[in-house]
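Appendix B. Extra example for self-study. Work through it before the problem class; the solution is given directly after the inputs so you can check yourself.
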Amino acid sequence: MTTSADEQAAGGLSRRGLFGLVGAAGLAVGVRGGVLGTLAATRATAGSAPTHDFFGAHQAGITTPVQDHLHFASFDMARSSTRDDLIELLQDWSYAASRMTQGLDASASGAVGGPPEAPPDDTGEALGLPASSLTITFGLGPGIFDERFGLRSRLPAGLERLPAFLGDDLDPKKSDGDLCIQACADDPQVAVHAIRNLTRIAFGRAVLRWSQLGFGRTSRTSARQQTPRNLFGFKDGTANILADDEAGLAAHVWTDDGGSFLVARRIAMRIETWDRVRLSEQERIIGRSKGEGAPLSGGDEFAEASFAGDAIPAEAHVRLAHAAQNDGIRILRRGYNYVDGNDELGQLSAGLFFLSYQRDPAQFIALQRALSRDAMNEYIRHTGSGIWMIPPGAEEGSFVGAGLFA
Amino acid sequence: MTTSADEQAAGGLSRRGLFGLVGAAGLAVGVRGGVLGTLAATRATAGSAPTHDFFGAHQAGITTPVQDHLHFASFDMARSSTRDDLIELLQDWSYAASRMTQGLDASASGAVGGPPEAPPDDTGEALGLPASSLTITFGLGPGIFDERFGLRSRLPAGLERLPAFLGDDLDPKKSDGDLCIQACADDPQVAVHAIRNLTRIAFGRAVLRWSQLGFGRTSRTSARQQTPRNLFGFKDGTANILADDEAGLAAHVWTDDGGSFLVARRIAMRIETWDRVRLSEQERIIGRSKGEGAPLSGGDEFAEASFAGDAIPAEAHVRLAHAAQNDGIRILRRGYNYVDGNDELGQLSAGLFFLSYQRDPAQFIALQRALSRDAMNEYIRHTGSGIWMIPPGAEEGSFVGAGLFA
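Solution. Structure tokens for the complete assembly:
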């Protein structure tokens, strides 16, 4: 898998050459626009387009303030791929991600800085755009730990396909995958550019299995962020774990080595049906008011819900999902709304692309089982599902997943 | 079509009641959040979220500075719909659009201001969001002028299905439609909210035929806007007609009554194939440099292309499409990039949702025919198509299309 023919087919991108350049020296070369220099000043004002470090103790994109746009992609390793291919892929991905998150092209020669007689290393649609808060988060699915890559002994406890849940209507073409990438940015073109170039870099080693665009995040990880609304029109993520809640993150999100587990669920909403439910019933289904997002037991949005009386009905979503009703179990949610055109009946194909991070998949499983009685289930269907282990962040000059191969 | 049963089915939304409220008095009632008042301050700072008037000589969304996000929708009238239904639909749509473009709910009672025992008038996912530069532009397709609505004599010259073009691979499910709505906003949730609520208002009278989300606009209508890039990585729209070019707009865009014609083409890009084309060849296909976007005949991005020599090849896109090569024909482009997941081969389903406004459909037809030799055709397929007449803007208190029924 490392012949020059392959490298040519991948668009002239020399995989071997990529990783060696990583680090501060590599990053100093070629802001998007490459050697032409005419686009050297690609950054917008810092306030509107922050840049997040790729390297660090944890991967970015988990507690990072949730950006407005998502492009999520799931990949399967090629049948012929070896352990070395997997290592090189993770190296090349980390290198390109470390550049793109800084507002740089996917490689040093980039979109226009290479030889004119070769295909460009970077596809170019992000030329001139700032980093736009881009984060790129890599995950490894259960398939990575089968016999193919010599990682069987490294299978993390709990990393297996999720069990079937009541109401599952999963499409295999929108589920699972050996690897995943979550790209979040304030500009969808930047998120799409990242997934496209990482897909291209994977050529011959891994192939895109499915992908999902999302917008209008449905959670917040910072007290400074307003709570956004899902497509049922309700605030979503009011009681999320916040980035500055170190004790909460340690207890619920980070594994001992600084990684996590990611669960993705594509939740289709029957929005036309929902839209015909009277307001009071919508609020009883959720357990919160629609305008303010306050628990029906009283107070404002951030008041603690009281489950003592029956102000919040027994089958209200907020009651069944609440930590107080689930032995204190919490997860970090990071979902997005989606609209994928419409069906043949003229109904929008819309819903929630649910993403959650937790230190143990059992947390998600327990909460999802608790939701089997959720009054909301009449209005949703889970159509996609996946689980991945999230390695800790890479040290500068290393790559995500390196610890598995030590 | 005006029974109370229908009104109930439409979610309690009283169509009859809607239009009477239009105008300044109606607009003063209930900023998003309705009578609760807790969300009265829904506007962000003016700089980040301008508001565009719905009423005016021309419809907004044509020369308006191009927003970052698009939700486009095409509708067919229900078989049972009458002329009165069409009139009322256009009235109700105009009323709701006049509100939503100001950052208000779709009706005065809105998402949370109605009686709790009724479904809300507004679906609520834009509660608390600013207007976000939302524009809503309505179009009428050829089907509106058949025998159903008594408008046969009002058929505008040139409003007919586009002829077949070389390379067409049109999907009827992504083409045509009796009515269209172009919703553009700086926040995709605001554009989606507009289309969703207008679809809901149409219940029983018109049904969604197809819809398309887009991002990262591919043209500019103001000299202050940077020229954005399409998914081939090239700047697109450098030579567009600008909003302050009144002579150009009069000559090429506005019909005598202040309307226009809209052409939509869903252009799928073979991006994986394109990405393997060497840089110099990509530039010869487009006729411009990739980094700067300068014509290959020399100068910077905004230099006039020279077609005297062969610096710009005979089959380069910019040569074939240029007004100087087409008897001076120009169109106002307003397209968006799209990514709709991926195909079974793991290739992103991506491309350009091309939108153009012109005073005569013959302009588009001539230019599209000129492109039959376009070197770019090897990398694209037209998979959707539609044409609509765009009525002039409505006067305050009236509705888009009123002139057709006078």
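Self-check: Strands of chain A lie at 69-77, 135-140, 179-185, 206-215, 260-269, 332-333, 336-342, 348-358, 380-390. If your reasoning did not lead you there, revisit section 3.
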